[in-house]
Write a structure and sequence with these properties.
Layout: E1 7-11, E2 14-18, E3 26-29, H1 32-52
Length: 71
C-alpha cells in the first residue's frame, strides 16, 4: 500500500485538493470529508490510467511539516 500526500484548500464553494506527487490529479468537494473521498477515487483512477498506458507509477515522496514562528 502506498500513501500519497494530499493538500486540501478551502475554495469558494467548498474545498479543493491535489497531490504534489501526482501532477494533474485533483478533486473538489463541498466538505472536507467529501473532498478526501473524491481525492481517494481520483488517485485510484489516475494510477489506473497510468498503468493502462504503461507509464511508471510515481513513488510517494512528498511529506508535510509545519514551521513555528513567534506570534
Amino acid at each position: 500500500m502506498k500513501k500519497y500526500l494530499i493538500v486540501i484548500e478551502p475554495a469558494g464553494t467548498g474545498f479543493s485538493a491535489y497531490s504534489p506527487d501526482l501532477p494533474g490529479c485533483i478533486a473538489t468537494g463541498h466538505t472536507r470529508d467529501e473532498v478526501e473521498r473524491n481525492m481517494h477515487d481520483a488517485i485510484a483512477f489516475h494510477l489506473d490510467g497510468l498503468r493502462e498506458e504503461g507509464q511508471p507509477i510515481p513513488q510517494p515522496q512528498t511529506y508535510s511539516a509545519y514551521v513555528e514562528l513567534p506570534a
